[in-house]
Amino acid sequence: MAGLHHPDTADIELVDVLAALGHPVRMEVARTLADGEERFCGEVVPEIPKSSMTHHLRVLRESGVIRQRPDGRRLYLALRCADIDGRFPGLLDILLAASPPRSSP
């Protein structure tokens, strides 16, 4: 897990954030992390297969939406609210309010 790329705040692009949050699973991850708490990746959207979550988390990380922090064998996630609000004020609030929670499969 060493070497996880997280774009600098200045490098976060609107099109990348919108594309990342355009998928319902990734939007659910953002909604779950919106309270500001850091969470273990396995508890964010537990009903999604691990291989699918790996892809969704990579998209979110590389777009600058989340930060992933390894700690031993666990990977912790946090929403980069301050960074995104710094680049695009109010965007996360609008997207979270406009998107209803995903229903369980």
TrEMBL record:
Ranges of residues in domain HTH arsR-type: 6-99
Highest taxon above the source species: Bacteria
Regions that span the bilayer: none
Recorded coiled-coil stretches: none
Cross-referenced SUPFAM superfamilies: Winged helix' DNA-binding domain
PROSITE patterns with a match to the protein in the record: HTH_ARSR_2
UniProt protein name: Helix-turn-helix domain-containing protein
Taxonomy of the source species: Bacteria, Bacillati, Actinomycetota, Actinomycetes, Streptosporangiales
